[in-house]
From TrEMBL:
Nucleotidyl transferase domain segment(s): 16-285
Site (Could play a key role in the communication between the regulatory and the substrate sites): Q68, W107
Family assignment from sequence similarity: Belongs to the bacterial/plant glucose-1-phosphate adenylyltransferase family.
Catalytic reactions of this protein: alpha-D-glucose 1-phosphate + ATP + H(+) = ADP-alpha-D-glucose + diphosphate
Assembly with partners or alone: Homotetramer.
Transferase among keywords: yes
InterPro entries, sorted: ADP-Glc_PPase, ADP_Glu_pyroP_CS, GlgC_bac, GlmU/GlgC-like_hexapep, NTP_transferase_dom, Nucleotide-diphossugar_trans, Trimer_LpxA-like_sf
Protein name as catalogued: Glucose-1-phosphate adenylyltransferase
């Protein structure tokens, strides 16, 4: 883990504003009933817990979360798991749904508009800095280092960024920088991304993390809100304007990435597709995972249900409750079934003579006897019928379920009900 210097604790004078209103349509049916930040991840957590935990672990004690799309599941999770911040300790945690506060007909029209509509609430905090965070990425980061870069460079905006292969950067906002990492141009999803000075094969991609001084941000949001031609988005409008008319600084993720002794590379994932979501969960089943969730120095906070321990029963030939290279959460019962490279969320029941391989199984799923499942993601509360086989016949799988090009099958209860009809 990087060690802070002596610049002072900027985090205590900062508000973390988390943008958590997006659907995440590329996750398909996983976001039919919940926003992307509320999607389950890693056995116990939700995706949004990573940005929120980073803020808490960085020393930030004022947090606002803007919600919009199908927010009930997300709001319930935030109320249950993030209600420990206390105003009497100069802390606050506010959930900010799109509530037509500016206009009776206007919801959040863009990421910048989500902050603009809450300016009066943010002003009441009296903070000097605002860090704007995306609530839908998986990573560990100490934001204090980014705040210090921002102050020491006297920047108008500091943008968190990743180094990615240049030809893979077409889906990101991409920064062109000079030798001092000052941003000279910001391009949203360019067809031909610019390279990094000295490393032309790599590009700097935006992480959707921005640091501003509060008053400067308010001025920019008011200017943008008055522009009828603006889409009121940080990546499309606010950031390009400040690159042209102010000083924008690129902050490279490895400078503030938090790593335990077991982690070798800076880990950041946008789990925005079914394949990426499955792969990131599978990362956790490795002997030495790329993302260390066992790091007590940087815990991932969440709402933890009260559950009994996981239970494995039966020890007969062909009917043995066992798990290899797998994560099994509390409340699970593995009754005479086998797990290989599989992740079970809370309260899953695996019945006898089943075999699960490379599966991501969300909470409260019941898997019937003799099922054989390979490379699947199963939505919450699904009842897998006895004898179901998935992952052995690609054409059959594609007719019955949501199958990706890499062979991952997403299974929901509605898909199974359609088969039974």
């Amino acid at each position: 883990m990087p060690q802070p210097g002596s610049y002072g604790n900027l985090s205590r004078n900062t508000l973390a504003f988390v943008l958590a209103g997006g659907r995440g349509s590329r996750l398909k049916e996983l976001t039919d009933r919940r926003a992307k930040p509320a999607v389950y991840f890693g056995g116990k957590t939700r995706i949004i817990d990573f940005a929120l935990s980073n803020a808490i672990n960085s020393g930030i004690r004022r947090i606002g979360v803007a919600t919009q799309y199908k927010a009930h599941s997300l709001i319930r999770h935030l109320q249950r798991g993030w209600n420990f911040l206390r105003p009497e300790r100069n802390e606050s945690f506010d959930i900010l749904p799109a509530s037509q506060r500016v206009s009776e007909t206007q919801w959040y029209e863009g990421t910048a508009d989500a902050v603009y509509q809450n300016i009066d609430i943010i002003e009441s905090y009296g903070v000097e800095y605002i860090i704007v965070l995306a609530g839908d990425h998986v990573y560990k980061m100490d934001y204090e280092f980014m705040l210090r870069d921002h102050c020491e460079a006297a920047a108008d905006v500091t943008i968190g960024c990743l180094e990615v292969p240049r030809l893979e950067a077409t889906g990101f906002g991409v920064m062109q920088v000079d030798e001092q990492d000052r941003v000279v141009s910001f391009l949203e999803k360019p067809a031909d991304p610019p390279g990094i000075p000295g490393r032309p094969e790599m590009a700097l991609a935006s992480m959707g993390i921005y640091v501003f001084k509060t008053e400067l941000l308010f001025d920019q949001l008011r200017r943008d809100a008055a522009d009828p031609n603006s889409s009121h988005d940080f990546g499309k409008d606010i950031i390009p304007y400040l690159v042209r008319h102010g000083k924008a600084l690129a902050h490279r993720f490895p400078k503030s990435c938090v790593k335990s002794k077991a982690e070798h590379e800076a880990y950041w994932r946008d789990v925005g597709t079914v394949d990426a979501y499955w792969e990131a969960n599978m990362d956790l089943t490795r002997v030495v995972p790329d993302l260390d969730l066992y790091d007590k120095d940087w815990p991932i906070w969440t709402y933890s249900e009260l559950t009994p321990p996981a239970k494995f029963v039966h020890d007969d030939k062909g009917r043995r409750g066992m798990a290899v290279s797998s994560l099994v959460s509390g409340g699970c019962i593995v009754s005479g079934g086998e797990l290989h490279g599989t992740l079970l969320f809370t309260g899953v029941h695996v019945h006898s003579w089943t075999r699960l391989e490379q599966c991501v199984v969300l909470p409260e799923v019941d898997i019937g006897r003799h099922a054989r499942l390979t490379k699947v993601v199963i939505d919450r509360g699904v009842k897998i019928p006895e004898g179901l086989v998935v992952g052995e016949d690609p054409e059959l799988d594609a007719r019955r379920f949501r199958r990706t090009a890499s062979g991952v099958c997403l299974i929901t209860q509605a898909m199974l009900d359609k088969l039974a009809a």
